[in-house]
Write a structure and sequence with these properties.
Elements (H helix, E strand, L loop, with lengths): L3 H13 L1 H12 L3 E2 H5 L6 H13 L3 E6 L2 E6 L2 H14 L1 H12 L5 E9 L3 H9 L1 H7 L4 E3 L7 E5 L8 E9 L3 E8 L3 H4 L3 E11 L2 E11 L11 H14 L13
Antiparallel strand pairs: 1-3, 2-3, 4-10, 5-6, 6-7, 7-8, 8-9, 9-10
Helix pairs in contact: 1-4, 5-6, 5-10
């Protein structure tokens, strides 16, 4: 099993190369691209581009999905969020400046994919996703009310808000493996206007850990980034809570608690 320091070493190695950083910038600009589409923007052989993409994938910075005959590449900003949470609060501005573009420019049409490895069991991870009290510890103090059955409704609340912050339907409930939900944000008129999107949680056991993938899709092109921009911080907080029993203390994590 790869340890946390070893995993961070892989991420830093991947980010050290300027071509790989440019590839990430391209995925910031337009997510879900094929290797050939990405390669057309570089004076490099297709083999060279594939090698760089494989290193980014191994570092967890890029996630791939098959769409018909094409293999598409998506940005996964969660490892960058973990670096930010570990070091920015200690060393502040130099790290914040270096990582700001990578962690904040998350706009892309239609679909966002986030991956993270957490040292826990599928059952405990499922509980952390569906238990309202636990959920509030890593998702900005928000609580969720639902009976978590297929076809049931859920609402998201916060003690500091006078009305629900979100609502949706639990389309597929398969504990402790898969949860598919619709989601309509209600915390402001700008996000209400975005309508309904879909969130899929997928849990895969890997040794003594779990591979968690969160896919947020059915977003309109150019959708408000409030809908999906918080996922790296949420998943980083989830990992921190399950592995250490502590809450994140970064300013964004404490914003609504």
């Amino acid at each position: 099993m790869v340890t946390y320091p070893e995993a961070m070493d892989v991420v830093f190695k991947a980010l050290a190369d300027p071509t790989r950083r440019e590839l990430l910038d391209e995925l910031f600009r337009e997510d879900g691209q094929s290797a050939s589409a990405l390669g057309a923007r570089f004076e490099m052989t297709r083999f060279g581009i594939a090698k760089h993409l494989k290193l980014l994938e191994d570092a967890g910075l890029v996630v791939t999905r098959r769409r018909g005959r094409e293999k598409l590449h998506f940005l996964n900003p969660v490892p960058i969020r973990l670096i930010h949470d570990r070091w920015v609060s200690k060393y502040a501005e130099p790290w914040a400046a270096a990582l700001s573009d990578l962690k904040s420019r998350l706009e892309s049409p239609m679909e966002k994919i986030f991956e993270i490895y957490i040292k826990t069991t599928p059952e405990r991870l499922w509980e952390a996703i569906t238990d309202s009290e636990i959920r509030s510890k890593y998702q900005f103090g928000n609580t969720f009310t639902s009976d978590w059955t297929p076809g049931s409704r859920f609402q998201m609340h916060n003690d500091k808000a006078g009305a629900p912050l979100g609502e949706g339907e639990n389309i597929e409930v398969d504990p402790p493996r898969r949860l598919v939900q619709t989601m309509r944000a209600l915390w402001g008129e700008d996000v209400k206007a975005e309508g309904t999107s879909r969130i899929t949680w997928e849990i895969e056991p890997v040794g003594d850990s779990c591979h968690l993938t969160v896919t947020h899709d059915q977003l309109r092109e150019g959708a408000n980034d409030q809908l999906y921009g918080g996922w790296p911080m949420i998943l980083s907080g989830l990992k921190t809570w399950l592995e250490t029993g502590e809450k994140l203390t970064t300013p964004g994590s404490l914003m609504y608690t």
